[in-house]
Amino acid sequence: MLELQGFACGYGLVRAVETLDLKVEAGRITALLGPNGAGKTSTMMAIAGHVQVQAGRIMFKGEDMTGLPPAERTRRGIAIAPEGRRIFPDLTVAENLLVGGYTLPLIEARRIEQSVFELFPRLAERRRQAAGLLSGGEQQMLAIGRALMAKPKLLLVDELSLGLMPAMVEQCFEALLALKRQGLGVLLVEQNTHRALRVADRVAVLVSGRLAYEADGEQARKDPAMVDSFLGLR
User: DSSP string spanning 196-233?
Assistant: First the structure.
């Protein structure tokens, strides 16, 4: 579904990621792991169109997306739940969702909104509440739900568990697994590496802007070299 070919991105003269080749398939969760400052968020934001691609190509469903603006990427099926969630705190839950579905006819947006409420019943209970009054976990649900309003084929999720209580982390990860079963491709950046490894079908590790390791999820979970050398989990 998504293929980064010789991909590099950065900010002006600063290159955050060097020559990355990576694939994300439909109906699978690909975890992009690594230490802070490795270039994970820069990669996600470049795929979404918010960080400059300095080399290579972003291919999506066989089409070159490298030069397209963010809104066009959204229309073609790429949506992001960004780090820090970036919801609109003064808008209600329902209004935040409608913003996410701005490219759709209203009747279609309402239909997808209902599917979001089925995925996250807590949002349905709080649909008229200002988003800024939600808990951190509820705001993360809202960020994912807002991204889903665009009817994506690929969902980018940056730091799903950041600042969340364990129960909320589990609910959000369960939602990702449900979306995967529906055929959605997911690219996940996550500091909770233990939890990310449990759900990942494919694992890639960035270190200092370069791909240091890549394997399927089962292999990565059993590979002490990956865990010890790159993530320091043991």
Answer: HHHH-SEEEEEETTEEEEEEEHHHHHH-HHHIIIII--
Strand partners, 15: 10
Q: Which two tokens stand for residue 234?
A: 């043991």
Q: What CA–CA distance (Å, rounded) separates 58 from 20? A: 11
Q: What angle do CA 182, 147, 45 make, to 5 degrees?
A: 110
Q: What mean pLDDT is reported for the chain? A: 91
Q: How far apart are CA 124 and CA 9, in angstroms?
A: 38
SS3 call for 55:
strand
Q: Cα angle at 49 between 44 and 53, to 5 degrees?
A: 80
The strand pairing partners of 130, in sequence order, are 92
As given in the structure block, the two tokens for residue 179 are: 């979306």
Dihedral pair phi/psi, residue 87, rounded to 5°: -75, 170
Residues of the chain below pLDDT 50? 233-234
CA 177 to chain centre: 13
